[in-house]
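agent> Task received from the user: take the single chain below, predict its 3D structure, and emit C-alpha cells. No templates, no multimer pairing.
agent> Plan: (1) validate residues, (2) run structure prediction, (3) serialize to C-alpha cells, (4) report one or two observations.
agent> Step 1 OK, no nonstandard residues flagged.
tool_call: predict_structure(input=
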Amino acid sequence: MASLPGVSFSHAQAIAGRRAFLRSGGVGLGAMALSLLERQRAHGAAIDPTATPGLPTRVHPPLPGLPHHAPRAKSVIYIHPNGGPSQIDLWDYKPKLHDYFDKDIPPSVRGDQRLTGMTSGQARFPVAPSKFRFEQAGRCGRWINTELLPYTAGVVDEIALVKTIHTNAINHDPACTFVMTGSEVPGKPSLGSWVSYGLGSESDDLPAFVVFTPLPDINPSQALFTRMWSSGFLPTRHSGVALRGSGDPVLYLPNPAGVTTADRRQMLDGLGRLNSLGFERYHDPEIQTRIAQYEMAFRMQASVPELADISDETSATLEMYGDDVKKPGSFTHSLLLARRLVERGVRAVQILHRGWDQHGNLPNDLKAQCLDTDQATAALIRDLKQRGMLDETLVVWGGEFGRTVYSQGTLTKDNYGRDHHPRNFCMWLAGGGAKGGISYGETDDFSYNIAEKPVHVNDFNATILHLLGIDHERFTFKFQGLDQRLTGVEEQRVIRDLLA
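)
tool_result: status=success, residues=500
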C-alpha cells in the first residue's frame, strides 16, 4: 500500500490494522458479549471471570472472607443533617437551663474549650435554654422535642440514641470529613465506600453506594464536599454515585439521539476489549474500574428510570412520607428512593441534607429544617418495618458536631444562635440490629461536657461496621505502607450496649 504524505509505511500499516480491528473485531466482540449477557440473564447474575464456572455470580461480590461474622444488617441508610444540628434543641433535654437564662456559662464548665473565630471575640457567653417544648414519648419514655420532631417522636421505640458522641474537629470541612471517613485528613475513603469495597452489593444493575444531596429552602448554598462520598485510596468504582433531583437522575446516562441500545452495547464491548488489552499491558487497576463503570452505566440505563418511577407505590405509602414525596430532589423523595434502592440490593445509601448551621435565628431556621425532614425520616422507619426490612436495614442519623449552650450574638427569649460544639452531640441508630428505645451516655447540666459513657466518632463507625458483619480492626487496605482502616490507627471499640 502507498504511504500517506508525511507518514511512514509502518505507521500507515498500524493505522490500517487498528481500523480493521475496530471494523471487524467490534462486530465479533459485540456478538460474543451479547451471548455472555444472555447467559448471565439466564442465571440472574453477572459473569465474573474469576468465579467458579457454571455458578451464578454478582457484579459487586464481597471481599473473600467477608463478612467476618453473621451480620445483623444487610444495608445502611445514612441520613446526615449537614451543619451541626443542635442537640440541646432536639434530643438533650436540659430543663434546669431556664434558671440560667442570659447568665454567663461558668468558666469551670467551659474550661479550656477552644472556640471558633465566630465567638472567640464575644465579651460574654450567655446561656440560651431551648425555647421548645420537650415531652416524653414512646414506651421507652424518651425525652424529645415534640414541637420540632412530632413524627420522629412516634418512632422513638425503634431508635438507639447516643447523647455523647464527640469529635476532634471544630469547623465544618474537617468535621464532615472526620465523621464520614474517620479522619480529618482528606483523601481517605468514606464509610459508604468502605462498605461497598468490603461487602459489595446484591444488585447487579445499580451501584453499590448511592448518594443524594437534596436542597432545602434554608441555607441551600452551604457547601458539601465530594470527599464525603469519595472512595479515597480505594478503587474509584467504590465512590458514591450521586443521583440528581431534577432532569436526568444521572448526567449523560441516556443514549444521545440516533444511538440505539444495540449500538451502545457494541461500542462498549469493543471499548471493553481495548481496555482489557491495556490492563494486560499496564496492570493499572483503574482500567478495570473503568470497564466496570461503563458496564454499570449501561445497566443503569434501564434500572434507574425504573427506580425513579414511584407510580407503583401505594397511596398509603406516599401519604405516610408526605406531600414532597412526589417532588424530585426533595429530602422526602430521596428517602423513598433510598428505601427502593436497598429493596433492590444496594448496600449503602447516603442522604446529605444541608443547612443545619444555625449561628443566628436558630429557632426559625431549625424549625424549617425539621419541617423538611421529620415526617419523611419517621416514615422511612415505619415503611421499612411494615415491609419486614427494618431488621436488616440500619438507619443512621447524625451531623458532624453539635451546638453550644451559650448564644452566639444577641440573645432573647425567642431568638438566639449557637456556635459549633464538638465536645458532645447526638446521633442515633434504628433497625439493623440496633437496640431500640434506649439512650446511651449522659452530658452535664449544660450539655457542654460528657458526664458518662463517651463515644468517639470512630467508636460509632466501628459499631456500624459491626452491625454489617465487619470487624473494624481486621478490615484494612494497604496504602502508603500502612494497613489503613475506617476507624483509624487509635484503639476504638464497638458500643455493645447499642446492640439488640
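agent> Step 4: summary for the user.
The first strand starts at residue 75 and ends at 81.
agent> Done.
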